[in-house]
Amino acid sequence: MQHLNSDAAPYHVVHKILPGAGPYVRAKHVQLVEKDPEAVIQWFLKAISDGDRVDSAHKDMALVMKQQDRGKKLSKL
What we know:
Layout: H1 11-14, H2 23-34, H3 37-50, H4 54-67, H5 71-74
């Protein structure tokens, strides 16, 4: 069985994050690696306003807000 290591596979594959540089990809990086919920929400809002994976950004932002017990604010968005 072959094991993945950082020399054999790209960073985004090893760490299971999306490749790229758009606001949605940045939001997922902040969510999964940096684990900063406030920054994640701001990046998802930027992705939505820029038209970058809007459906996914809405869904993921809703999940983060629910985890932060901010579900009531979702109906206002």
